[in-house]
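so i finally got all the pieces together for this one. its two components total, 494 residues if u count the protein bits. some of the lines might not be protein, just check the labels. i wanna see the whole assembly predicted at once instead of chain by chain like last time, that was a mess tbh
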Amino acid sequence: MTCSVDYVYTVSRLRAMENRLLEPGVFQRLLDSEDLSSALRVLSETPYGKWILEQQSEEKFDKAIESELLYIYSETERFVPDPGLYFICRLPYDIHNIKVLLKGIFNQKEGGKRRMDLLTGLGNMPVDEMVMAIESEDYRLMPFGFHRTVPECVSIWDQSHDILQVERVLDEALFSLQTRIAAEMPFEGVRLFVRSRIDAENIRNLARLKRMGFEAPQAAPFFHNGGSVPVEKVNSLLNEPFEGWERFLSFADVSRTLSSVQEHTGLDSLIVDLERSIDDFLSGILAKFKYSAFAPENVLCFLWLKEIEAKNLRILLVGIGNGADRSVLRRLLRNV
Amino acid sequence: MDQLGIMLAVLGAALAAGFAGSGSAIGVGIAGESGAGIMTEDPGKFGLVLLLQALPGTQGIYGLLTAFFAILKVGLLGGDAVSVNVWQGLGVLFACLPIAIAGYYSGIAQGKTSAACIQMIAKRPEETGKAVILPAMVETYAVLALLMSIILLNSIQF
């Protein structure tokens, strides 16, 4: 009788909402579509149909995907007892919005354009409030410690004009926030997910930095603390050939992301497959909680599956719109 | 001393009805929460949900049945007055314990199983038959406890 049933309503409702997830057959029909119009026709028969009808042109399919995600987030927000669970999922969008706004301001100072169309409503903080706070430089009411992070980024830009450093500070803020929120909740699975996500991000950064030719001392600040693999260990791998990374990390779960992408000749193609492998690895971390009828981690699992579904749809629709080879698109799809 | 014997028998009946009823209440509550979650998204599943929600309610009925037997045995529910000594009263109390304990725990366990099975039919309504069998397995142990309580009550001589 030790099993908590606090999440019985939540998990049951999520199980019913899982019927909104697209079946593998829909993805197959999308892959078989001749062009974007026929793909959108297939998609209009699914829960995305409502949002597709609202769009004025076919190219706006991304807004339809965003609307479905927004609907899912606002619904779950109403009945999930611990807000930390959806905060963790929505924080990357807050950080994305901050990056878009700051880059816009920095660009404008140098005579460039601002890209307000890249802002998303999927974050925890309403977009209007964030725009107002950053444009007026009145950061006091920004939540999650953004009132300290944003001025720090502005200051870094003023001193160095180094956008990579600004992004690094924001990513660091994202992962430390996620770690802090997970630590405040009594759910081991949530902490495991955040740790695995940091590990996965470090591996992704490792591959990117290796491709960009970074040396270990330069790269060290780009790795994030909080994962199960120490950053020093990840950083030391920059001096090793890619083929050896899996062996060096064999003590950690994240090495699974590397085992499926060993047969690559170059880092460019490897990074594409690594992205898919990382998403599948994180899905695998959460998948085991699906077998527990009352586990709060089911919230993360459902939201993550919805995110991956949205990612798959973007890959397919962008690819189909650009006439990409269907076998390439199939290879890029994540497991849902 | 007769009064103490009667009191012990009444305590046994109260425990049987109280604990088994509490187990059922908790179990039905858990299954009901699960059912509400499903029906918020799909109200058409009311019939299936109701069936599964009702399953953990049987322990309460078993407890009530045992309590009736116990108080009938000591003559509190009509019939001839029976003289009950302390040992006979204790006997009735102990005879009521199997359904009190097993009813409480199996009610909660069955509620959890029903909740999980309600989640199952949310995704696979065609598996309703299997969804009913799984919580019914828990019922077996409540039935065994009821059987033992009745056998024990019948074996007490007044």
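The radius of gyration of chain B is 19 Å.
Chain B touches chain A at residues 30, 33-38, 40-42, 105, 108-109, 112, 115-116, 118-119, 122-123 (CB under 8 Å).
anyway lmk what u think
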